[in-house]
Design brief:
By secondary structure, the chain is α/β, with parallel strands linked by helices. The protein has 2 domains: 227 residues, Glycoside hydrolase/deacetylase (TIM Barrel); 90 residues, no CATH class. Helix content is 42%, strand content 15%. The chain contains 12 helices and 12 strands. Strands 1, 4, 5, 6, 9 and 12 form a 6-stranded parallel beta sheet that branches. Helix 3 links the parallel strand 4 and strand 5. It is globular, with a radius of gyration of 20 Å. It starts with a helix and ends with a helix. The structure holds zinc ion. Zinc ion binds next to strand 5.
């Protein structure tokens, strides 16, 4: 057992998305500011937190100190700058944010948030909606959940996709539509979303709380010196659904857009949706990245630098986070 416990020295890369509180969070992206501060306090006291650049270098030289942890954020939400960065600065903890740069200054939310805004907000919708998709007509049958009062929406605010059965026909439709959209190209995703807005009788909108960062904000974050910027493609596609040439364009152009904002190349990459193929890894390596983060479930970070495993962090308190890391080390 003591030998197993020694495995707790394996480095761990934590995966966050947002430091925020939202009415609904089907993908479990949000960690509240209070919990995030507890995480930083706990990690500062009980773990050795390093930047991804330092971790990559230490993995390369085989010089990883016990209980090393690195923090990462995916996507590039504005709360990374407004809520996460001040706390990271206060606790002197470095982090890396992987930005889907095609959403920068685009004036819309990420496609999965737009879908959530339409279907899971407490607004009444038509009970049956049909939208055209490349594979054919896609029907959203909301049935009796077409009416969705605030109190009902609040009751289902804690629902997490794939962790519990969808509690209403709305959630069934939300998940089925997400599964259709996730492997489409960006243009097809937005064509579908515009059709959905149309049949729902809603206007496009961008909620200030969950918008992507602007180029100016990404620059400000980088200049702050607490957070490193990494790449996350242009439009956040499921890369295995694209041809190798399309994958290359997403990966190269996404990195180039960030380089032009920052005035220097980015070194790290994270695979959208954690999905990749051998082609993807080869393209990322050939593009000149130094490392790439996969999603979860993770192996130890001390593996292939182009498929570094991560642990998704839930909206839990600091003690729970530490217990989770200890437990994970014990079973690793
Ligand atoms: Zn992402």
């Amino acid at each position: 057992m003591s030998l197993l416990r020694r495995k707790s020295s394996a480095p761990v890369i934590l995966m966050y998305h947002r430091v925020a509180v939202e009415r609904s969070d089907p993908w479990g992206l949000c960690v509240s500011p209070m919990h995030f501060e507890e995480h930083l306090d706990a990690l500062r006291r009980h773990r050795r937190v390093v930047s991804m650049t330092e971790l990559r270098e230490r993995l390369r030289t085989g010089d990883v100190a016990p209980d090393t942890v690195a923090l990462t954020f995916d996507d590039g939400y504005v709360d990374n700058l407004l809520a996460a960065e001040p706390l990271l600065r206060q606790y002197d903890v470095p982090a890396t944010v992987f930005v889907a740069s095609g959403y920068t200054d685009r004036g819309c939310e990420f496609w999965w948030d737009e879908l959530e805004r339409v279907l899971l907000a407490p607004d009444d919708l038509p009970s049956r909606m049909t939208i055209p998709l490349p594979a054919g007509a896609h029907v959203l049958d909301l049935g009796s959940s077409a009416r969705y009062p605030v109190a009902v929406a609040a009751r289902h605010g804690q629902w997490r996709a794939y962790h519990a059965d969808p509690p209403t026909a709305r959630h069934v439709a939300f998940l089925a539509t997400w599964e259709q959209l996730v492997t489409l190209h960006d243009a097809e995703q937005w064509r579908a979303l515009r059709s959905l807005l149309d049949v729902a009788g809603l206007a496009p909108a961008m909620r200030p709380s969950c918008r992507p960062m602007t180029a100016g904000e990404i620059g400000a974050l980088a200049r702050g010196g607490v957070m490193e910027i990494g790449a996350h493609t242009l439009t956040h596609p499921a890369l295995p659904a694209l041809s190798p040439a399309e994958q290359e364009r997403e990966i190269r152009d996404g990195a180039a857009a960030l380089a032009s904002i920052l005035g220097e190349p980015v070194r790290g990459f994270s695979y959208p949706h954690g999905r990749f193929t051998e082609d993807t890894v080869r393209i990322v390596r050939d593009t000149g990245f130094a490392y790439a983060c996969a999603g979860v479930p993770s192996k130890s970070a001390a593996s292939d630098p182009f498929t570094l495993g991560r642990i998704g962090v839930p909206d839990c308190d600091g003690d729970r986070l530490l217990a989770m890391l200890t437990e994970r080390a014990r079973v690793a």
